[in-house]
């Protein structure tokens, strides 16, 4: 087999094989929805909100959450369709493998475990920091006095002190998750109910201190009290707030353990996003109507606000909610991490040891143990501030791939049920498309691939031109115009193809416009990431590709299937 054919071989499901699994199908719609909520309610709402209000958007964080929620919704459309069609543990990895081929599936899959590891480590450290603040720094003081510093350099690679408490909290959470899927789901659901109750208390009690003059007029610097940092601040805040919504993708990793994934994944996706958007906006209103935006504590916004109002009991209740919320983040993250590893190992792309499912718990125990220990070590010794932004590139890459997968799959020809060797019109050119006779000579699906590639190139040109601030000069205008024309032609060309008639529980509406808009937003966000983030990503990707070329390409189950088919054909 040609090397290029190995790279782009696609994962195939026959009959109901997409439902076959070693894992236990025991999760209801509410279990799956609460897993997503548990991964979103936590550090995002208790830590991120204060930082964005104080330094980026002010009370206009409400608009930031609306914009970022809309961006998350665009990606959610694609996740809902693919999650209902291919309910496997790998989420974006599986979708990319099915639609784009093995090499792209591996690239996406390789970024996901690191994303979860860094995310878990960051939340674990935030949890202990919050508890440490609640007890007047007694925890950090005790560790430093008895063990000492790891680093005295502020902003360095290593943490100031070894976070032993975070290390053991991660181990405890992973044990709970490893015991069994249903038990961990029940623990998660209990935390979600507690968190929502605390949030509603904070919102209602906080609004009793509401001062609407904090939203109207101008401050002492002549800036709008509601939008002190202008529209650019709102957009910058939206980019930050976007990552408070990324937890919804964790529900796709539960697809292999849902009782009825075709129904559960779409309902849970939109249900969790709707609930979390309303809660974020209500919390932001409560905070910004209590105290002026420039008096908000970026690290402990709500507890400091209640303390400023003399509401000590409310501060304690809110602190308990914050700790429970972040602990819930750890539970859902510890649930998703080993399953993302298991999916790749089960396909033979990484070491088969991680594909072992424990006969008693029906969970990927080996992957849970190894990657929990790795994450706990990260948490123990590394300062994660320099690594947190790395989270975004993996997430945005996964979201972009999922949107691209919807476009590719919608324009593929599919077999007509009950009619052997007969296909629908999927991927065929419409009559009005120019140069139809020439384009029709391409291999099936190739023209859509080229159009999608061209669309993304156009987006990158536009985003780069604006990013390097060339929009105000002649060259910048030319580049933006060229990128706009290029992407418009590509989108117009995609519209010129027939969509297939494949039946699905849920399908993204207004294709290709919604996936294309999602790709545009994600491309802009990736272009605006720091240069060092891209360097770290390239290094991590290089390590992964060494594993793929040394092990995965030879042990791929899909590759072995193809070899067996070739042998049978030759006989």
Automatic annotation (TrEMBL):
<keyword id="KW-1133">Transmembrane helix</keyword>
<feature type="transmembrane region" description="Helical">
    <location>
        <begin position="264"/>
        <end position="293"/>
    </location>
</feature>
<feature type="transmembrane region" description="Helical">
    <location>
        <begin position="474"/>
        <end position="496"/>
    </location>
</feature>
<dbReference type="InterPro" id="IPR029485">
    <property type="entry name" value="CAT_C"/>
</dbReference>
<keyword id="KW-0325">Glycoprotein</keyword>
<keyword id="KW-1003">Cell membrane</keyword>
<feature type="transmembrane region" description="Helical">
    <location>
        <begin position="390"/>
        <end position="409"/>
    </location>
</feature>
<dbReference type="GO" id="GO:0005886">
    <property type="term" value="C:plasma membrane"/>
</dbReference>
<feature type="transmembrane region" description="Helical">
    <location>
        <begin position="508"/>
        <end position="528"/>
    </location>
</feature>
<keyword id="KW-0813">Transport</keyword>
<feature type="transmembrane region" description="Helical">
    <location>
        <begin position="92"/>
        <end position="112"/>
    </location>
</feature>
<feature type="transmembrane region" description="Helical">
    <location>
        <begin position="229"/>
        <end position="252"/>
    </location>
</feature>
<feature type="transmembrane region" description="Helical">
    <location>
        <begin position="365"/>
        <end position="384"/>
    </location>
</feature>
<dbReference type="InterPro" id="IPR004755">
    <property type="entry name" value="Cat_AA_permease"/>
</dbReference>
<feature type="transmembrane region" description="Helical">
    <location>
        <begin position="191"/>
        <end position="209"/>
    </location>
</feature>
<feature type="transmembrane region" description="Helical">
    <location>
        <begin position="534"/>
        <end position="551"/>
    </location>
</feature>
<feature type="transmembrane region" description="Helical">
    <location>
        <begin position="158"/>
        <end position="179"/>
    </location>
</feature>
<feature type="transmembrane region" description="Helical">
    <location>
        <begin position="450"/>
        <end position="468"/>
    </location>
</feature>
<feature type="transmembrane region" description="Helical">
    <location>
        <begin position="26"/>
        <end position="48"/>
    </location>
</feature>
<dbReference type="Pfam" id="PF13520">
    <property type="entry name" value="AA_permease_2"/>
</dbReference>
<protein>
    <recommendedName>
        <fullName>Cationic amino acid transporter C-terminal domain-containing protein</fullName>
    </recommendedName>
</protein>
<keyword id="KW-0472">Membrane</keyword>
<feature type="domain" description="Cationic amino acid transporter C-terminal">
    <location>
        <begin position="506"/>
        <end position="556"/>
    </location>
</feature>
<keyword id="KW-0029">Amino-acid transport</keyword>
<comment type="similarity">
    <text>Belongs to the amino acid-polyamine-organocation (APC) superfamily. Cationic amino acid transporter (CAT) (TC 2.A.3.3) family.</text>
</comment>
<dbReference type="GO" id="GO:0061459">
    <property type="term" value="F:L-arginine transmembrane transporter activity"/>
</dbReference>
<keyword id="KW-0812">Transmembrane</keyword>
<feature type="transmembrane region" description="Helical">
    <location>
        <begin position="60"/>
        <end position="80"/>
    </location>
</feature>
<dbReference type="InterPro" id="IPR002293">
    <property type="entry name" value="AA/rel_permease1"/>
</dbReference>
<dbReference type="Pfam" id="PF13906">
    <property type="entry name" value="AA_permease_C"/>
</dbReference>
<feature type="transmembrane region" description="Helical">
    <location>
        <begin position="313"/>
        <end position="337"/>
    </location>
</feature>
């Amino acid at each position: 087999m040609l090397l290029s054919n190995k790279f782009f071989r696609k994962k195939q499901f026959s009959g109901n094989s997409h439902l076959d699994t070693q894992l236990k199908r025991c999760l209801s719609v509410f279990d799956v929805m609460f897993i997503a909520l548990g991964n979103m309610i936590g550090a995002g709402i208790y830590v991120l909100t204060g930082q964005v209000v104080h330094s980026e958007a002010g009370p206009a964080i409400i608009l930031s959450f609306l914009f970022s929620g809309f961006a998350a919704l665009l990606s959610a459309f694609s996740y809902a369709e693919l999650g209902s069609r291919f309910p496997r543990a790998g989420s974006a990895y599986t979708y990319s493998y099915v639609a784009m081929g093995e090499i792209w599936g591996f690239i996406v899959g390789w970024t996901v475990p690191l994303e979860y590891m860094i995310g878990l480590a960051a939340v674990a450290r935030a949890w202990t920091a919050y508890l440490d603040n609640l007890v007047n720094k007694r925890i950090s003081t005790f560790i430093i006095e008895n063990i000492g510093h790891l680093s005295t350099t502020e902003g360095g690679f290593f943490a100031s002190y070894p976070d032993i408490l975070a290390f053991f909290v991660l181990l405890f959470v992973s044990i709970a998750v490893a015991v069994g899927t249903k038990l961990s789901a029940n623990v998660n659901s209990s935390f979600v109910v507690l968190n929502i109750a605390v949030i509603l208390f904070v919102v209602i009690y906080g609004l009793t201190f509401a001062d609407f003059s904090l939203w109207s007029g101008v401050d002492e610097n002549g800036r709008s009290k509601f939008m002190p940092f202008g529209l650019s601040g709102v957009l910058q805040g939206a980019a930050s707030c976007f990552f408070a919504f990324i937890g919804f993708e964790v529900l796709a990793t539960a697809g292999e353990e849902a009782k009825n994934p075709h129904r559960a994944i779409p309902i849970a996706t939109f249900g969790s996003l709707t609930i979390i958007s309303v809660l974020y906006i209500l919390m932001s209103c409560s905070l910004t109507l209590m105290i002026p935006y420039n008096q908000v504590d970026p690290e402990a916004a709500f507890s400091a606000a209640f303390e400023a109002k003399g509401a000590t009991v409310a501060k304690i209740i809110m602190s308990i909610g914050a700790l429970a919320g972040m602990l819930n983040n750890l539970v859902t993250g510890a649930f998703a991490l080993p399953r993302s590893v298991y999916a790749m190992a089960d396909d033979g792309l990484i070491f088969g040891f991680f594909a072992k499912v424990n006969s008693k718990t029906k969970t990927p125990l080996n992957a849970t143990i190894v990657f929990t220990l790795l994450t706990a070590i990260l948490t123990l010794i590394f300062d994660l501030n320099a690594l947190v932004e790395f989270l975004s590139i993996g997430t945005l890459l996964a979201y972009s791939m999922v949107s691209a997968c919807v476009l590719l799959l919608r324009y593929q020809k599919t077999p007509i049920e009950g009619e052997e060797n007969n296909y629908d019109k999927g991927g065929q050119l419409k009559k009005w498309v120019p140069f139809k006779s020439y384009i029709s000579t391409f291999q099936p699906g190739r023209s859509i691939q080229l159009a999608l590639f061209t669309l993304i190139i156009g987006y990158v040109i536009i985003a780069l031109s604006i990013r390097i601030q060339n929009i105000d000069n002649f060259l910048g205008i030319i580049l933006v115009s060229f990128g706009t024309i290029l992407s418009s032609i590509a989108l117009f060309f995609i519209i010129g193809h027939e969509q297939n008639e494949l039946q699905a529980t849920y399908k993204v509406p207004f294709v290709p416009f919604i996936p294309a808009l999602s790709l545009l937003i994600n491309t802009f966000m990736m272009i605006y990431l720091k240069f060092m983030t891209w360097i770290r990503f390239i290094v991590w990707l290089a390590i992964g590709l060494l594993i793929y070329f040394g092990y995965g390409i030879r042990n791929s189950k899909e590759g072995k299937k193809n070899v067996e088919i070739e042998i049978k054909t030759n006989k």
